[in-house]
Design a protein that fits this description.
Low-confidence stretches: 1-19, 536-563, 574-618
Number of helices: 18
Structural class: alpha+beta
Largest sheet: 8 strands, mixed
Mean pLDDT: 84
Helix content: 25-40%
Shape: globular
Strand content: 15-25%
Number of strands: 23
Radius of gyration: 26 Å
Distance between the termini: 47 Å
């Protein structure tokens, strides 16, 4: 009910917000100015506010704050870990996903928990409503409409690294707004160009102009930064009622939705209200249309690098000719009449786009509501950044999102949150901080960017994280929430207390695990269904596969273990098998005592850490 009241306030206040534009904000000194209202900008503004900074968010249109520019989904393998970490640091994205999700699933469940991928299809309108409601009702945050013409640059502080100091921004009307820190989150709008067929027009998103040319001039000429150029694209949107779903494979969501946010026990969408996705495939006819239209497709002929892991259908056909390619038909909302064809990003002329999609059996009668198009935009080579996302050569200037060469909502949000935290800390005369790649996927992301740079749009995968077995989605709160509260000052007391409660419950459960002790021979006598080896030198039988070992849970007494810590109990018990060789503990597979149902984990088999000389306590 509280959220609904805030949404009503949001709708009434939209028309009033722009009135506070340049004439009033130019008279104030802000701690932090955030430029851009996309996923990086919204997280940066909210994070700066949570550190205690007076913050100004400048966006070209308040109505597009939080818009899902491309796919209507959140999370996935690697990306889901980022969403969980943003939430653990009190960011907006996870809670927005829980409110807007209409199809929840955990990808990679057949593999180990380290590579599970929380994912959801989203209702575009609901996601945008949630983000706008949060920001437009946030204390210490002012939101205005405007376009930034350039940066205000002065002499650098000689006691700090850097050749220049950024002290604010200049708006397109000539007004100047001063601040201690500036965060640029321009997305695809920095000198953006739109491509469709042989037509090119300036813009960062269809129907929206690019950022002012003066901003690019400030970065390249005034600050002397090295810039590059990247490209991306989006597929056409299809009219749902013109699609024949009987010719596509039905994919249902999980029966029990798993929330992204650690402080949510359930999602806004009830399990029975979730809607399915469908899967279909390209045909040889799709290849034929692509090859016949290459001479009419200027975007695909460019040398500018596009996303390798989310390529256009033209790139897929040219790189892998003769193959079938997946096309996911994703809903755009509970009440939307549109579908998003994931895998059919294209930039050929609209009439050829229609011809191409109708080469797919399920789409033979499909109509296009809006055609696909490509975008090219400038980015700043991220090796010019510190690990806290401040430019090395410009004091007070932070960059986040696609301006750093990444692709994806989740990667942008993670950078925005970290840049916002450090911009706020810097403005409040606190030292900036960095995250290690050993403690978070956010740390992996930033370390890859600032350490190696990019030659193509960067996407997160679990394979990029060397310590992924300990950087799981389920323990992001235990890894980052205490740090966010105790060191960063960006986490609320309520969230911190919840993380402490879960941490204590997990510690107690693992203590229970270790208290259950017996020698291997005694275990074999009592637990005849367990795969316990006859040999003294090994515990697990050769007939017991690794999948069976990792499929076990936890054994305990009648002590209650919180449900939200159950996965942690299960996984940490498994990890003990691999990491406790130097301790007097070994892992034993056991059948399930009746009282372990309170753990909320698998009821097939359970596991415990035991020593060889203590009696069995049950």
């Amino acid at each position: 009910m509280f959220l609904l009241r805030r949404l009503l306030v949001h709708h009434r206040s939209l028309s009033a917000c722009p009135a506070r534009a340049a004439s009033s904000v130019a008279q104030r000194q802000y701690d932090v100015i955030v430029v851009g209202g996309g996923h990086a900008g919204t997280e940066a503004a909210a994070a700066a506010v949570r550190t205690g900074a007076e913050t100004l968010l400048i966006t070209q249109s308040i109505k597009t704050i939080g818009a899902l520019s491309c796919n209507p989904s959140l999370g996935g393998v690697g990306k889901g870990q980022l969403v969980k970490e943003v939430d653990a640091l009190d960011g907006l994205m996870g809670r927005a996903g829980d409110y807007a999700g209409v199809h929840f699933s955990i990808l990679n469940r057949r593999k180990g928990p380290a590579v599970w991928g929380p994912r959801a299809q989203l209702d575009r309108g609901r996601y945008k409503e949630f983000i706008q409601s949060e920001l437009l009702n946030m204390p210490r945050l002012t939101v205005i409409e405007g376009s930034v013409e350039g940066l205000l640059v002065s002499a650098a502080d000689p006691e700090q690294p850097g050749k220049h100091r950024v002290t604010g921004v200049r708006l397109d009307g000539g007004s100047e707004v001063r601040s201690s820190s500036v965060v640029l989150t321009t997305g695809t709008f920095l000198s953006g160009s739109l491509f469709m067929g042989q037509t090119t027009s300036p813009g960062g998103r269809m129907g929206e102009p690019p950022s002012c040319a003066g901003l690019t001039h400030s970065l390249r000429e005034t600050l002397g930064l090295k810039l590059g150029r990247l490209k991306t694209g989006t597929p056409p949107r299809l009219v749902k009622e013109t699609v024949d779903f009987s010719l596509a494979q039905l994919h249902l969501p999980d029966s029990r939705p798993t929330p992204f946010s650690f402080i949510n026990t359930h999602t806004h969408c009830k399990p029975e209200e979730q809607i399915p996705c469908h899967l279909t495939y390209t045909t040889p006819g799709v290849d034929r249309v692509v090859k016949e239209s290459l001479h009419m497709n200027s975007h695909i002929q460019q040398d500018t690098k596009g996303p390798r892991y989310c390529p256009s259908i033209e790139s897929r056909v040219l790189r892998f000719p003769g193959r079938q390619h997946q096309v996911w038909l994703e809903p755009e909302g509970l009440n939307s009449d549109l579908l998003y064809p994931q895998g059919l990003s294209m930039t050929m002329p609209p009439e050829l786009q229609l011809r191409l999609i109708r080469e797919i059996p399920a789409l033979q009668r499909a109509d296009i509501r809006t055609p696909g198009y490509g975008v090219q935009y400038d980015f700043v080579c991220p090796t010019q950044l510190f690990p806290w996302l401040q430019l090395k050569s410009a004091q007070g200037l932070f960059l986040a999102g696609q301006i750093n060469g990444t692709t994806g909502y989740e990667e942008a949000a993670a950078q925005g949150l970290w840049a916002g935290i450090n911009a706020g800390r810097t403005a409040l005369s606190l030292p900036p901080l960095s995250l290690s790649r050993t403690e978070s996927y956010i740390g992996v992301l930033i370390d890859d960017l600032v350490g190696h740079g990019v030659t193509e749009p960067y996407r997160m995968f679990t394979s990029r994280a060397e310590f992924r077995t300990s950087l799981r989605p389920d323990n992001a709160d235990l890894r980052l929430t205490p740090k966010g509260f105790e060191e960063l000052g960006c986490v609320s007391p309520h969230r911190y207390q919840e993380a402490v409660r879960v941490r204590q419950g997990l510690a107690e459960a693992l203590s229970i695990l270790k208290s259950v002790t017996l020698s291997p021979s005694r275990w074999r006598e009592k637990l005849t269904d367990a795969c316990i080896s006859e040999a003294k030198s090994t515990l697990i039988s050769n007939s017991c596969t690794q999948k069976e070992v990792w499929g076990c849970g936890a054994v305990g007494k009648e002590d209650k273990v919180p449900a939200d810590g159950a996965v942690g109990v299960e996984v940490e018990g498994h990890q003990g098998f691999w990491t406790c060789d130097d301790k007097p503990f070994i892992l034993v597979l056991t059948t399930v005592p009746p009282h372990t149902d309170s753990l909320g984990v698998s009821t097939k088999t359970k596991a415990g850490l035991v020593t060889e000389d203590d009696p069995l306590p049950f």
